[in-house]
Amino acid sequence: MRGQDNQQDASTVSKAKRVPASHPRRASRWVIWAVCIFAGVTTRAATQPDRQVAITIDDLPAGNASNMSAAEIADMTSRLLATLREQKIPAVGFVNERKLYKMGEVDERIKALAMWLDSGFELGNHTFSHASLNQVGLKAWEDEIVQGETVTRMLLAQHNMKLRYFRHPYLDTGRDLGTRQEAEAYLVARGYRIAPVTVDAWDWMYARVYEDARKRGDTALQQELLRSYLTYTDAVFAYDEQLSKELVGYEPKQILLLHANQVEADHLGELLDVVRKRGYRFITLEDALSDQAYSLPDTYIGEEGTDWLDHWAITRGKPPQGRPVFPAWVIERAKSIPRPPTAP
Predict the structure, then answer these.
(1) pLDDT of 33
(2) How far from the centroid of its chain's Cα atoms is residue 244's Cα?
(3) CATH number at residue 125
(4) What separation in angstroms does the CA of 238 have from each of 96, 173, 201, 242?
(5) How far apart are CA 57 and CA 167, in angstroms?
(6) At residue 114, does pLDDT exceed 80?
(7) How distant, in Å, are the alpha carbons of 14, 91, 98, 233, 315 from that of 325?
(8) pLDDT attached to residue 21
(9) Could you point out which of 232, 240, 275, 339 has its C-alpha 20 to 30 Å from the C-alpha of 105?
(10) Which residue range forms the structural domain that includes residue 183?
(11) Are the C-beta atoms of 100 and 146 separated by less than 8 Å?
């Protein structure tokens, strides 16, 4: 996730897709990889793409948990999970356990988190407090991973499940290659697999404005935001499909990044309709990660996190161009919303 608690300073949004200077080309590794999959690529290119996508949802129990009651979190979670359950959509939710610790509400917040497992979904680690590897340093980040496991492991064990996925907060994977490699080795040693992202339509930014409008009863603005969000998501999918073909030669199994917020609780069904109209079927994260694309050479480093399609392009020395522009009016609306005091 790029936005924590839906409270990230909107003025920093312009940096979120900044592409650092190109990395040295890894031409030989790319040639070897391309030769290995050439036969499969040519076969797929000749037919209609079999579009598949895994749904991942960050910032559990809720993106804006610090400004919500346990009852509000439970209600939002219930509506979000109802859509996934009714439509039989597999999903993994990534947890920031710090959001469970609000005085007088810990047990109720844990119960809201447990609803995910009770409904047949899976949980992963998103660090204790949504800590960026790029900002806190490797040792503090490792401590965040351990601290962020306590409740999640316990709940998973109650369902005979293991904690196996990790999602980088802000998609920050390290400022330098050495740090990135050490971080990844640490995750492997603790039994994690990193959950990449290939499609990200910034629902967290929409959510900040949407939730403010929802509290004020501004239904017209809510509908305007929904239309914009669905249109932008459609454009992002189209862009990422084309970029995938340019980079890999086919459309791999995509991984969509969403967040636990009121936009998704209210309108996930409409979002899923947009994705279906593009020809997608929904798969597990485990299935998505079986795609050979996720073994592509990846030496991306940078101050700002970005998705794995960008990782692969930048590793090749070809930073992508032409990404859909996020609607400026949503950013301006987000900037204008006063920050509420942080609840204890």
Answers:
(1) 52
(2) 18
(3) 3.20.20.370
(4) 31, 25, 12, 6
(5) 10
(6) yes
(7) 10, 27, 33, 11, 23
(8) 38
(9) 339
(10) 49-336
(11) no
